[in-house]
Design brief:
There is one protein chain. This protein is mainly alpha-helical. The chain has a domain of about 40 residues. Helix content is about 50%, strand content about 5%. A two-stranded antiparallel sheet has the order 1-2. A hairpin with a 5-residue loop joins strand 1 and strand 2.
Length: about 140
Amino acid sequence: MREATGPVTLAGISERQRISLSYLEQLFGKLRRRELVESVRGPGGGYCLARPAGGISVADIIMAVDEPLDATQCGGKENCLDDRRCMTHDLWTELNRTIYAYLASVTLAELIEKQHAKHVECTVLKDKRHSIIDPIHV
């Protein structure tokens, strides 16, 4: 969301999102290896998206940082119940597919757009409340 002003520093992300800097370094290393972000060195350096936000899905990000999308108890190995497949294995496997398909359909650009819309909506609500409550401007 802040990329329009240039590269974003991990320290800045860490502070704004309250995420450990060392954890962010690990995540962004993985994102860089998957070519989702590019690093910019030197003064004013940081990270930028490697391609347009509309071309990066949430599933791309999750897969890049090695986060499993698996609702099965067995990790897909079909040894859920005493080395046998459990009765609900197919249910959880289909849920995995559905979750992945949904996350693959949501782009980073859409998330950014929704966040901007929420910000605008909150600003409008604050302005309306102010004008209703403030007797000077009524």
